Amino acid sequence: MFFLRLCSLCVAVLVATRTFGAEPETPLQTPEKSGHKARAEQNITFNSVQADRPYIAMTFDDGPSATLTPKLLDLLATRHIKVTFFVIGENVAEHPEIVARAAREGHEIGNHSWSHPNFGKMSDDNVRSQLRRTDDAIRSATGNRPNLMRPPYGSITAREKHWIHDEFGYRIILWDVDPYDWKRPGPAVVRNRILKETQPGSIVLSHDIHPGTIEAMPSTLDALEAKGFKFVTVSELIRMATPQASHPSPQPGRNAPTKATPSPSPAASPVSSPSG
Asked: Does domain 39-239 sit in CATH 3.20.20.370?
């Protein structure tokens, strides 16, 4: 009997020793790995950048327009301002000479799809076709392929962002200033909204297919310069970004957040307006 009790006691001590002395289970993803992933995702999607200097990027969507885009290019040339155009492939195919001129004069050209559908509601193959056809049209017009993409309406899923970035090498460009010029509120309203919302590091959305937007640009650009802002392309602005702590920002729908850090969004955007 004494021998059995002694054996039981030894077994209990052995079990307790292994239980309390065991190494804790290693988590599947360490904080370091999680932080690395967040930093990597920050290099894919941009609403704006963290800037300690007054640089901003003006962007124009949905062109080229046969009549309005050349007027805008004349205006920009006079002021020695460089901007980024997110072009529609169908329009590039119809007016390649306008896109060629924009690139020749130092403006940046980005992919904005072939026909402006909602990527967040499309199959991968259809999205791929939209991007590839536009990529080919831009390369045919300018001699170079784009490295930026803006999804129509700002609608894109997190998964789409990653495979598009991996396959095409694109950075996904959204915005943090939206004057709702697609509603055609008049040049003064477009100008005032841009002036009110623009901050250092802003990416300003507008469209070179609306007459009121082009009419608003001379006074808008002059007023922004008077406030001390300097104009660069989106890629130049990204290169100027200052280091910052990574934390995700909400996904914009057709309207991006007022001020956001470059980060991916978790899901497809709701469609609420024709911006972008």
From this structure: yes
